[in-house]
Amino acid sequence: KDFSLTYERDASCTDENVERGNWANKSEYLLSLVGYAVGLGNVWRFPYLAYQNGGGAFLIPYTVMLALAGLPLFFMECSLGQFASLGPVSAWRMLPLFQGVGITMVVLSTFVTVYYNVIIAYALYYLFASFQKVLPWSECFSWADEFCSKTRIVNDCNTTFHGNIIRANYSFVAANNLTCINGTISYKPVQFPSEQYWNKVALQRSSGLDETGRIVWYLALCLLLAWIIVAAALYKGIKSSGKVVYFTALFPYVILLVLLVRGATLEGALDGIEYYIGKESNITKLMEAEVWKDAATQIFYSLSVAWGGLVALSSYNKFHNNCYADAILVCVTNCATSVFAGFAIFSILGHMAFVSQRPVSEVVDSGFELAFVAYPEALSQLPVSPLWSFLFFFMLVLLGLDSQFAIVETLTTTIQDINPNVMKKLRLPITLGVCAILFLLGLICVTQAGIYWVNLIDHFCAGWGLLISGALEIIGIVYIYGGKRFIEDIEMMIGKKSNSFWLWWKICWFFITPVLLIAVLVWSLTTFSNPTYGSVVYPAWGNILGWCMIICSVIWIPIVAIVKILKAEGNFLERLVSCCRPTANWGPYLERHRGERYSHMADPKNKEHEIPTVSAIVY
Predict the structure, then answer these.
(1) Which of 58, 161, 165, 471 is the Cys-Cys partner for 50 at CB 3.0 to 4.6 Å?
(2) Which of 281, 211, 253 is nearest to 62 (CA)?
(3) 234 phi-psi bin (left φ>0, alpha ψ -120 to 50, beta other)
């Protein structure tokens, strides 16, 4: 017994908060934040958005939205978690009426973590498939049908025959040694080998959500492997994941650089880059409102705000850590990564367009089609293609994993805040249990209809539910808890700052950021459409299920508010007012950090004080 106590004390001797634990050093926290923020979307969504919305000109609204919407929310969430040393649910002791917002964040994170690991499983499958001398999607092999082709196939055209211009099949033109008239050629609808491999071999895709089919066993094994990696990285919480991110957060940059250097040496690479950010840039696109909406949405999702993960990761910081500098550094790194990734993607897609004799606009894509169809097709045309394919999918796996670490850490942090003693004793079994349950929930996503499930959850749960929680978060903190009070809380951590220092943050927090979030939310709701996957339309029950998922996420906001009001004391107005005040146990976790402002604070480990009372107004 004495030995175990001594060992535990030694293991956490550098921790400021011995009960919860702290990051071993600043770099582990920063790399975890970068790994969380920099994910698959930086590689497979931003480059396409930039190309679609004016190329280089898109960087203007993207940077503006970073300053006006992304950075203020990022800084706010990091400050909130660090100040209270609590996760996304318990941190709402600051405003009990809005504690449901924290629960919504955790529920949304749970939905997303189910399908996010399935995408990592896809990447793992392609990673293993790359260990072959000839990439299995490089040609139309036995699994292909008659529509599979690496080059365009002429269907018919106008030609001159016995002095008359006629429309003829290309077989007739070729048999009679005729020549097609320029500008009259029509092509057959063909598919790249990589597209048919993705649908027919990797996914074994069924006809729709109605046809579930069987579990694709090799994808299930890849999913199991992905969850084993996550569980192994988190078996000691941040103490183990903080070590893993040195590799998972940094090595993708090495691979991106290698891919960029290789891509830049290829013929046609310049054409791809010019489409991305060069002479094809269109400054007039900035006059379109949708371009600004796309920039705001991409910034919001890319930085991973309103998921609860930033609050959870920051809750393990030491109290006087400079979260202001951290927020700026991570946000700039995240956005620079997106731009940098675009060069690596478009240089190789430019080469693919050159080889297949197509314009770049016909080979570029986003999402699954970029990661598992267009880019693998481009890589298969390079010398030593298995090496480049391995590097690319290894990068996707790493980008996905460190985001996944943070999402699962958000869930375990929430459990820890509910019962710290149980989590401290049983961290490993609880972490394994969480991962096992999420693995079982994800099995529906590795059936033959799995891609439809992944797309369905992504369409509903990674959409406007986040915008609702983000908008309520900033409105609650700034207008109800009090922006001035929140700034004073931050100054307790990073030191007193001048009024001019806070001017920009006040303008954003009090007006610009909430207005932008509400505007994007309204736009998203008014332009909302039911999900489709390619040309496949979802059945009515699938759409209903999607709405049930999003309702199941946001319903906690009114439910918790009503429960808090019912549990409070006094008449209705007194109850409402008390629920809009911090609970008696809100404030810095450790007594030595509370100062005079929080000298009357109750023990934060005492849950009895989480039920607001009229007397809470004192605090």
Answers:
(1) 58
(2) 281
(3) alpha
pLDDT band at 615 (very low <50, low <70, confident <90, very high): very low
HEC string of 346-376 equals HHHHHHHHHHCCCCHHHHCCCHHHHHHHHHH
505 close to 75: Cβ distance less than 8 angstroms = yes
Instruction: Look up residue 500 and give its two tokens.
Output: 């001019």
CB 20 within 8 A of CB 315: yes
What is d(CA 57, CA 385) in angstroms, rounded to the nearest whole number? 33
The vertex-576 CA angle with 578 and 420, nearest 5°, equals: 55
Residues with Cβ < 8 Å from 118, sequence gap 6 or more? 219, 223, 442, 445, 446, 450, 454
Strands 186-187 and 532-533: unpaired
In whole angstroms, what is the distance from residue 127 CA to residue 217 CA?
16
Query: Percentage of the chain surpassing pLDDT 90?
Result: 74
Can you tell me which residue has the tokens 């190789």?
348
CA–CA gap between residue 420 and residue 148 (Å, rounded) = 57
- Among the listed ranges 308-312, 385-389, 459-463, 499-503, which one has the minimum average pLDDT value? 459-463
CA distance 586 to 581: 10
Q: Of 17, 56, 205, 95, nearest to 476 (Cα)? A: 95
% of the chain beyond a pLDDT of 70? 96
pTM: 0.92
The count of C-alpha atoms lying within 13 angstroms of the C-alpha of 186, restricted to the half-sphere facing its C-beta, is 9
- Residue 368: φ, ψ to 5°: -60, -40
List the CATH code of the domain at 26-139+199-567. 1.20.1740
CA angle 444, 445, 449 (to 5 degrees): 90
Stretch 192-199: mean pLDDT? 94
Residue 610 is which amino acid?
A: E
Q: Report pLDDT for 3.
A: 35
Surface-to-core class of residue 13, CB atoms within 10 Å of its CB (0-12 exposed, 13-18 middle, 19+ buried): exposed
User: What are the pLDDT digits (tens) for 511-565?
Assistant: 999 999 999 999 988 988 999 998 999 999 999 999 999 999 999 999 999 999 9
CA dihedral 337, 303, 283, 287 (to 10 degrees): 170
The annotated binding site is made up of: 35, 37-38, 42, 302, 334, 399, 402-403
Which tokens belong to 554? 């946001």
Report residue 498 CA to chain centroid gap.
Answer: 35
Dihedral sign (CA 51, 54, 60, 63):
negative
- Rounded to 10°, the helix 556-567/99-129 angle is 150
The CA distance from 466 to 578, in Å, is 27
Q: Structure tokens of 198?
A: 């993705």
Q: Binding site for Na(+): what residues are annotated?
A: 35, 37-38, 42, 302, 334, 399, 402-403
Q: Do residues 23 and 242 make contact, with C-beta atoms less than 8 angstroms apart?
A: yes
Q: What is the largest CA-CA distance in the chain?
A: 103
Please report the pLDDT score of residue 339 as a whole number: 92
